[in-house]
Amino acid sequence: MLKRITADDLRVGMYINDLSCGWLDHPFALNKFLIKSEIELKKIKVAGVISIEIDTKKGLDVVVEKRKQSNLSLRQAVNALSDKKPELNAVKAEFGAAKLAFNEAELYISGMMTSAKMGQHVELEEVNPVINKLCDSVLRNHNALLGLTRIRNMDQYTFEHSVSFSVLMMSFAKSMGESERFIRQVGIGGLLHDIGKTMTPDHILNKAGKLTADEFLIMKDHVVQSRLILEKTAGLSQVSMDVAAMHHEKYDGNGYPRGLKGDEISLAGQMAAIVDVYDALTADRCYHVGREPSEALKYLLNGRGQHFSPLLVQKFIQSVGIYPAGCLVLLNNHHLAIVIEVKENMLKPIVEIFLNTRNRSYVPNKLIDLSSQTDLKIKSVENFEKWNLKPDMLKW
Ligand SMILES: [Fe+2]
């Protein structure tokens, strides 16, 4: 929904639809963009813009922000404002805060990786607020952030992978009933697990083709480098360290760097091995298009007992669902829909329909809880490319 607001009401996380001034009158390359940082926000205000049009479907809503300030939770605020059923709106209500937390985490890790290259240590005081926002969103409703992990920019792979890894680890730990402390610790480990890649030469890191044996040895060293960098971080938990130091270990002992086997790999380390592969497979890279989540889950199932702990693969699938949030599905009534929330019945999530494939016409977006439908069900998982769609086109 488009809304005109004053510059004073503008916040980080809002999506600018129209800056209401000429392209030459402001310092941004585009007139439409998401405000990702306080620096960008300041630039807009300094440019002397008085009123701005925002798109509340692509970013935070000014009303939600004000409600949040008056101590109403984000979910309560949006549910109170909406005439839709509250239970169907729980994820949608979380998207604004989730987007903000995701963007902040991405900015943090990209800055930290640049600093780490120059020898700067990771300070927990700087990581904690970033993780707290991600973790709070995961604890409120993890489907919002999980859905966002499907929207990827292949140029930002390492940073987005780090944030997605962190989100997936926290959702995984939450669904296994782990303590909030453990959830935050695996989140920190997830965000920082590949920090050692700052020491890997770019030509190896970004190589599109297969790595030579020597290049692969250098690539593998990023795990050791991550550990060495994180050892300098005062107060970092063993759980966080294990995520970084063990994410390439394999259950059968054929992983690296230490070749640990079975329960020699800690719980956090075994979880990290699953999450690393799942996220790498589902993300678009410069040299391949990401697989659909259902295909990645099949890969995990095939790797049980060799690469992954069989029990934890099962628990991970329970955590993300057979049709994870953000997945494109075709219903048996010929409507295309996006999975919004996975509930107890993994085969019947809450979906949002948006396209009638019979006449290829857009239909008004509508949330449907498939668990309350007897005849309506998912027919197949669809590929965004096949329908000439992109995950970020979806109007969450
Ligand atoms: Fe890695």
Description:
The protein is of the alpha+beta class. It has 3 domains: 2-71, no CATH class; 87-320, Hypothetical protein af1432 (Orthogonal Bundle); 328-393. The chain is built from 14 helices and 9 strands. The chain has a 5-stranded antiparallel β-sheet with strand order 8-7-6-5-9. It has a 4-stranded antiparallel β-sheet with strand order 1-4-2-3, with no helix packed on it. Helix 4 (86-117) packs across helix 5, helix 4 crosses helix 6 and helix 5 crosses helix 6. The radius of gyration is 21 Å and the shape is globular. The relative contact order is 0.08. The model is unreliable at 64-86 (pLDDT under 50). Fe (ii) ion (FE2) is lined by residues 194, 222, 247-248, 276.
